[in-house]
């Protein structure tokens, strides 16, 4: 049952890997939910209790119907940067609270300090939010555990060797479900205004160790071979912007030989330990054996 005294929460990025889980968690908590989507057909994947609005971050005025009467917004930026200021202005005119899914670009660990166009965009949006009258919470997840699906699942499904650069580069993959749980909690409960939270998994793991844990989940060994950075650049052509590829390679290079940056934030906010990468791999084992 929805709590009748609670204004709805608007979720942008509603069909994405964080937003979609946030919707379920808010509904479970009895919070009325609105979803913003650019395509009407995307609504078919959302629960029937969700009120769906068509809108686009590149057209800020299109957000007004979804924002009118809402109490809070989960902002997941999925558009070019040009309209960021106008979107934040629209949010401030309608709602009291925004939770922004950003990145750990302020974190002093070298892994997060590489030139990164996405970090520049996130910092710009944060400045607009800080200059507004919005109550804000900034959530900064590190490396998503689910990145491994895009990176390694195709080779694993094909029974091939996983070839990847900087096998000794360490990160602390955070489960998408833990990111979503923190976002949901900060959206509908008081006490998190002004919060700035870096979210990580509970352990430092190299790329090679992560592939090993996926192998454990599948019950068979997976061979891992080092790929050169230049080979990674060639294979990435056409699939990712060159600036992103260079940023990743520089970040991974800087992470070799030192443990990943770890925080206790997930446990502090949720009251439960963050999921391990081993648990994530076990829960998603079929994604490494069946084509999506």
Summarize the structure.
By secondary structure, the protein is of the alpha/beta class. 38% of the residues lie in helices and 14% in strands.
Radius of gyration: 19 Å
Return the CATH class of the largest domain. Answer: Alpha Beta
The CATH superfamily of the largest domain appears as NAD(P)-binding Rossmann-like Domain
Major β-sheet annotation = 7 strands, parallel
CATH topology of the largest domain: Rossmann fold
Strand order, sheet with most strands: 3-2-1-4-5-6-9
Strand content: 5-15%
**Total strand count, please?**
11
Task: Give a description of the structure.
- By secondary structure, the protein is of the alpha/beta class.
- The protein folds into 2 domains: 9-142 and 174-199, Rossmann fold (3-Layer(aba) Sandwich), CATH 3.40.50.720; 147-170 and 203-261 and 277-288, Alpha-Beta Complex (UDP-galactose 4-epimerase, domain 1).
- Helices cover 38% and strands 14% of the residues.
- A 7-stranded parallel β-sheet has the order 3-2-1-4-5-6-9, sandwiched between helices.
- Helix 1 crosses helix 6 (176-188) and helix 8 packs antiparallel against helix 9 (242-255).
- The chain starts with 8 loop residues before the first strand and ends in a 9-residue tail after the last helix.
- The relative contact order is 0.14.
């Amino acid at each position: 049952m929805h709590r009748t005294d609670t204004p709805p929460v608007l979720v942008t990025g509603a069909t994405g890997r964080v937003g979609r889980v946030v919707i379920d968690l808010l509904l479970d908590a009895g919070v009325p939910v609105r979803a913003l989507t650019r395509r009407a057909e995307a609504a078919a994947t959302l629960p029937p209790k969700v009120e769906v609005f068509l809108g686009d971050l590149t057209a800020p005025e299109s957000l007004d119907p979804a924002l009118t009467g809402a109490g809070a917004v989960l902002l997941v930026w999925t558009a070019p940067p040009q309209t960021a200021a106008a979107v934040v202005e629209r949010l401030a005119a309608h709602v009291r609270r925004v939770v922004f899914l950003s990145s750990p670009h302020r974190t002093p660990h070298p892994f997060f300090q590489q030139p990164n166009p996405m970090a520049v965009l996130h910092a710009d949006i944060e400045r607009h939010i800080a200059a507004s009258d919005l109550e804000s919470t900034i959530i900064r997840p590190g490396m998503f555990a689910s990145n491994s699906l895009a990176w390694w699942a195709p080779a694993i499904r094909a029974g091939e060797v996983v070839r990847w650069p900087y096998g000794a580069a360490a990160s602390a993959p955070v489960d998408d479900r833990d990111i979503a749980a923190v976002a949901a909690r900060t959206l509908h409960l008081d006490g998190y205004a002004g919060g700035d939270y870096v979210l990580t998994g509970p352990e430092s793991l190299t790329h090679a160790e992560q592939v090993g844990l996926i192998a454990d989940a599948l019950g068979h060994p997976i061979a891992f071979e080092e790929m050169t950075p230049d080979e990674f650049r060639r294979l990435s052509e056409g699939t990712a912007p060159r600036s992103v590829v260079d940023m990743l390679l520089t970040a991974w290079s800087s992470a070799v030989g030192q443990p990943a940056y770890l925080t206790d934030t997930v446990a502090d906010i949720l009251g439960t330990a963050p999921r391990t990468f081993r648990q994530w791999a076990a829960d998603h084992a079929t994604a490494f054996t069946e084509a999506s």
